[in-house]
Design brief:
Elements (H helix, E strand, L loop, with lengths): L14 H5 L17 E7 L2 E7 L5 E4 L15 E5 L4 E4 L2 E4 L18 E5 L5 E22 L2 E10 L9 E2 L7 E5 L4 E3 L15 E7 L6 E14 L12 E5 L4 E3 L7 E6 L2 E7 L11 E8 L4 E6 L11 E6 L3 E2 L9 E3 L8 E3 L28 E10 L4 E10 L4 E2 L1
Parallel strand pairs: 9-12, 10-12, 11-13
Antiparallel strand pairs: 1-2, 1-15, 2-3, 4-7, 5-6, 7-14, 8-9, 8-13, 8-14, 8-15, 16-19, 17-18, 18-21, 19-20, 20-27, 21-26, 22-26, 23-24, 23-27, 25-26
């Protein structure tokens, strides 16, 4: 194939390799697929982590504590902690320290920390945590991916809640709260410490929505004490368990040469898309995407997604090639796109750019969005037609844009 541009290349990994599922079964064909999850369940009816992908669930049982100490090391989740490591007592996970503060094994205090790490499953996109909070609580929760921090959050309760700081959760039990990248402090339980052993009244069901995928969660109380739980205080049949919601996209694009390119070669459809710097010059945050190729319909769908609370004004440069056309009509070849991938009726001819998109870009390393005609989100920079055989030619389209289209 002849190319007009030379891009840094990054192979698009097959789903099984990208996600590292190993022996995890494929999705079930029965009914629409639900989100992939890893759930921590701690109750009288079982103590385990469970992976579900709308097929047969896989359980990782947590063995019986030995002197209230537990060992959890995959295949779904690993647990580690300070001092003597994690412990379990009365449906609560903490750290086994035996110190003067807290309850050994069942709680974590300001001198301790506890870490959960996903293993052999996709990274997580968000997490809902069943936390038991004691005293004037301020707990830092750090999410990271491959050792790199992707978000730092805080949950507060009792005297840990400060007027004018953070976003308040629900005002009645069961108490819930949400933390996001733009609002990372969540206040739970109306600044009230309900005291020990109060069932669901001393719990906070905290949802964290970060801007990037993560594989590790670390808990570090600043003041007060906390326990990690799995729905046991809410009674049987509860949905208030600790739940990782796993990513369901094909990858993430950054703005550096090491992570800004996706390459697709499937049948007669070829695509290579580079993410450029944001058009407003803001810091680049990894942006999830999905790719779908239909070789029969000769379409390529590229759908980037904004993370919760962190929209990215991303720009892209691409090289696209589809099936060869008849040689006697080389100039009849044209590129169509559906701006928001809303179905066949949405296809229209992609316009030519009204100038060089890299001349006077909106921000360094981005494009000049003014060259994209009004009402459009992508435009053609150049087209090069090459001879494939005596009867066929193929056109390589160089394009730039700011949306999430389907091409054909």
């Amino acid at each position: 194939m002849n190319k007009v541009l030379t891009f840094p290349r990054m192979a698009l990994l097959a789903a099984a390799v990208l996600l590292g599922l190993g022996s995890i079964p494929a999705l079930s064909d029965d009914g629409p697929p639900g989100p992939e999850t890893v759930t921590l369940h701690l109750g009288t009816d079982g103590t385990y982590f469970e992976y579900s992908n709308n097929g047969a669930p896989i359980q990782q049982k947590i063995g019986a504590p030995k002197n209230c100490q537990i060992t959890v090391n995959g295949p779904l989740v690993a647990l580690s902690g300070s001092d003597k490591g994690p412990g379990l007592k009365d449906g609560s996970i903490g750290v086994k320290s035996g110190g003067s503060q807290g309850v050994p094994c069942a709680r974590i205090d300001s001198t301790e920390d506890l870490t959960l790490s996903l293993m052999g499953v996709p990274d997580a996109a968000q997490i809902a945590l069943d936390l038991e909070l004691k005293g004037d609580v301020r707990t830092k929760i750090t999410l990271s991916n491959g050792g790199t921090v992707v978000g730092t959050f805080e949950v507060r309760a009792g005297g840990g809640v400060k007027a004018g700081e953070g976003v308040d959760g629900s005002t009645t039990a069961p108490y819930t709260a949400t933390a996001t990248t733009s609002a990372p402090i969540a206040n739970c339980r109306n600044a009230s410490d309900s005291g020990p052993d109060s069932g669901a009244n001393d719990n906070c069901y905290l949802t964290i929505l970060p801007t990037g995928a993560f594989d590790t969660v670390k808990f570090q109380p600043i003041t007060g004490e906390m326990s990690l739980e799995g729905g046991g205080d809410y009674g049987s049949g509860t949905t208030m368990q600790t739940v990782f919601t796993l990513v369901d996209y094909d990858g993430e694009l950054g703005c550096d040469e090491s992570n800004n390119t996706v390459t697709i070669e499937e049948g007669t459809v070829f695509g290579e898309i580079n993410r450029l710097q944001n058009t407003d010059g803001s810091d680049c945050v990894l942006k999830p995407y999905n790719i779908d190729v239909d070789t029969e319909a000769q379409t390529l769908s590229f759908v980037p997604h904004d993370n919760e609370g962190a929209p990215q004004p991303a720009a892209y440069q691409g090289l696209l090639m589809f099936a060869p056309t008849l040689a006697e009509n080389p100039f009849d070849s044209h590129l169509e796109y559906d701006q928001d991938d809303d179905g066949p009726l949405g296809f229209e001819d992609m316009p030519w750019c009204a100038g060089d998109p890299f001349d006077t870009p909106d921000a360094p390393g981005s494009i000049n969005t003014e060259v994209i005609p009004g009402g459009d989100t992508w435009c053609i920079v150049s087209a090069t037609t090459s001879i494939v055989s005596e009867t066929e030619t193929r056109t390589a389209w160089t394009v730039v844009g700011i949306g999430d289209p389907k091409f054909r």
